UniProtKB/TrEMBL annotation:
<dbReference type="InterPro" id="IPR029119">
    <property type="entry name" value="MutY_C"/>
</dbReference>
<dbReference type="InterPro" id="IPR011257">
    <property type="entry name" value="DNA_glycosylase"/>
</dbReference>
<comment type="function">
    <text>Adenine glycosylase active on G-A mispairs. MutY also corrects error-prone DNA synthesis past GO lesions which are due to the oxidatively damaged form of guanine: 7,8-dihydro-8-oxoguanine (8-oxo-dGTP).</text>
</comment>
<feature type="domain" description="HhH-GPD">
    <location>
        <begin position="48"/>
        <end position="197"/>
    </location>
</feature>
<protein>
    <recommendedName>
        <fullName>Adenine DNA glycosylase</fullName>
        <ecNumber>3.2.2.31</ecNumber>
    </recommendedName>
</protein>
<keyword id="KW-0378">Hydrolase</keyword>
<keyword id="KW-0408">Iron</keyword>
<dbReference type="Pfam" id="PF00730">
    <property type="entry name" value="HhH-GPD"/>
</dbReference>
<dbReference type="InterPro" id="IPR005760">
    <property type="entry name" value="A/G_AdeGlyc_MutY"/>
</dbReference>
<keyword id="KW-0326">Glycosidase</keyword>
<dbReference type="InterPro" id="IPR044298">
    <property type="entry name" value="MIG/MutY"/>
</dbReference>
<dbReference type="InterPro" id="IPR000445">
    <property type="entry name" value="HhH_motif"/>
</dbReference>
<dbReference type="InterPro" id="IPR003265">
    <property type="entry name" value="HhH-GPD_domain"/>
</dbReference>
<dbReference type="InterPro" id="IPR015797">
    <property type="entry name" value="NUDIX_hydrolase-like_dom_sf"/>
</dbReference>
<comment type="similarity">
    <text>Belongs to the Nth/MutY family.</text>
</comment>
<keyword id="KW-0479">Metal-binding</keyword>
<dbReference type="Pfam" id="PF14815">
    <property type="entry name" value="NUDIX_4"/>
</dbReference>
Length: 359
DNA sequence: AAATCGTGGGT
DNA sequence: TACCCAAGATT
C-alpha cells in the first residue's frame, strides 16, 4: 500500500527560512540561483562530520582548507602532517582514508570527484551516507541520505517502534519515499537540520516543527521515546602505563602507532598493553623511573582506560621504541586526546622538577 | 554481521 | 555519575 504522506515541501520551505550557516555550505537562496559548493569542501566536511558534532568540526575544517586549499594540496601533504592536523578529532582511520582518497582522486580522476553514489562508494572512507551526501549536496544529484538525524525524523513521522539498528532498512525505505523531485541537496540538508535543531533526541521542539501535523509519533504522544534502540553493553575498564622519556635537552620520545587499530597512525607515548587488570611496570628502557601521582582517565568508544604515567630521563633509546622529538618541534596538539592528557600530567612534574634548577 | 573505532558536550 | 549522543565506515 503506497504511502501518501510527504514532508518534502514543508521541509524545503522551512529550510529556506531556517537553514543554518556553515563554512562548507551554500545557502538555499544561492543554490536556487544555481550555485553549488566546492565538492572538495563537501567531501572534507562530510568525512569530518561522521559521528562528530558540527561544533567540533568547525576549527578542523578551517585549518584543513586554509592549509590545503585544493584536493591536490592535500594529496601532496605528508602523512604525519595530516595525522597531526586531525589529532583530537577522533576516529583516526578517517584521516588515513582521507589521504588515500585525496591521492586517488588527484592521481586517477584529475582531481574531480565522481558524481554518482556507486562510484563514490568505491573511494576510501566513503560509505553509503557520505556517497549520498556528496551526490546530493555537491552535485544536486538524486540521492537520499540516511544518517542518525534522518533515522530519528522518519521513526517519529511514521511512529516506527522497531528498535535500531534493526529498523535501519525500513527507515531507509521511508526516507527514500520522501524525496522531492528537485533540490536534492537542499532537501538532504533540510532533514538533517530539522533533526539537529527541532526533532532532537531530547528536549524536542515540536512547537516549532514544520511537519508536526504530519507526525504520527507526535499525534500518539510518543515522539520523545523514538527511535527505540537496542541497549548497549556496559563498557569494561582497561589499565595501562604510559612512559614519558625525556632527554636532558628537553626532547621527548614518541612512537608512531601502526596504521591498523586504535589510534592507528598517531604519535603516542610508549605504553604497556592495555589489559583488564593493573599493568605490571615493564619499562621500555632501563632508567630511573618515577611514578606520577595523577592518573589519566579516558573513555573510548567501547572501553574505559585508566592510564598511569611514569617519567624518566634518558639520553638514548633503541630506534624501534620511537624517536626523540626536540623540545622545539614537540607539539602536544599533534597527539590524540588521551595522549595529550598524559602530557598534561607529565609536564607539570617536569616543570616542578626543573624550576628549582633555574632559580 | 557484530565489533571496532575517539572525543567532547549534554542531561 | 553514568549514560547518551553526533552529518558512519570498515572488516
Amino acid at each position: 500500500m503506497p504511502n501518501k504522506v510527504n514532508i518534502s515541501t514543508e521541509l524545503l520551505t522551512w529550510y529556506d527560512a531556517h537553514a543554518r550557516e556553515m563554512p562548507w555550505r551554500v545557502p538555499p537562496q544561492a543554490r536556487l540561483r544555481g550555485e553549488l559548493p566546492d565538492p572538495y569542501h563537501v567531501w572534507l566536511s562530510e568525512v569530518m562530520l561522521q559521528q562528530t558534532t558540527v561544533a567540533a568540526v568547525g576549527k578542523y575544517f578551517h585549518d584543513f582548507t586554509t592549509r590545503w586549499p585544493r584536493i591536490q594540496d592535500l594529496a601532496a601533504a605528508q602523512d604525519a602532517d595530516v595525522m597531526a592536523a586531525w589529532a583530537g578529532l577522533g576516529y583516526y582511520a578517517r584521516a588515513r582514508n582521507l589521504l588515500k582518497c585525496a591521492r586517488f582522486v588527484t592521481s586517477n580522476l584529475n582531481g574531480a570527484f565522481p558524481k554518482t553514489e556507486r562510484e563514490l562508494m568505491k573511494l576510501p572512507g566513503i560509505g553509503p551516507y557520505t556517497a549520498a551526501a556528496i551526490t546530493a549536496i555537491a552535485f544536486d544529484g538524486r540521492a537520499s541520505v540516511l544518517d542518525g538525524n534522518v533515522e530519528r525524523v522518519m521513526a517519529r513521522i511514521f511512529a516506527i517502534e522497531n528498535p535500531l539498528p534493526g529498523a535501519k532498512e525500513e527507515l531507509r525505505a521511508l526516507a527514500l519515499s520522501q524525496m522531492p523531485n528537485s533540490r536534492y541537496g537542499d532537501y538532504a540538508q533540510a532533514v538533517m537540520d530539522l533533526g539537529a535543531t527541532i526533532c532532537t533526541p531530547r528536549r524536542l521542539q515540536c512547537a516549532q516543527c514544520p511537519i508536526r501535523p504530519k507526525c504520527r509519533a507526535h499525534a500518539q504522544g510518543i515522539a520523545p521515546d523514538l527511535p527505540n534502540k537496542t541497549p548497549k553493553p556496559k563498557k569494561p575498564t582497561r589499565h595501562g602505563i604510559a612512559y614519558v622519556i625525556r632527554r636532558d635537552d628537553g626532547a621527548l620520545l614518541l612512537t608512531r602507532r601502526p596504521d591498523r587499530g586504535l589510534l592507528g597512525g598517531m604519535l603516542c607515548w610508549p605504553c604497556t598493553d592495555w589489559g583488564d587488570v593493573d599493568a605490571a611496570h615493564r619499562p621500555p628502557i632501563s632508567a630511573d623511573w618515577q611514578a606520577l601521582n595523577a592518573e589519566v582517565r579516558h573513555t573510548f568508544t567501547h572501553f574505559h582506560l585508566h592510564l598511569k604515567v611514569m617519567l624518566a630521563n634518558a639520553e638514548t633509546a633503541p630506534s624501534d621504541l620511537g624517536q626523540f622529538v626536540t623540545l622545539r618541534e614537540f607539539n602536544p596538539d599533534a597527539l590524540p586526546s588521551v595522549m595529550q592528557k598524559v602530557w598534561n600530567i607529565a609536564k607539570h612534574q617536569i616543570g616542578a622538577h626543573n624550576s628549582p634548577k633555574e632559580t
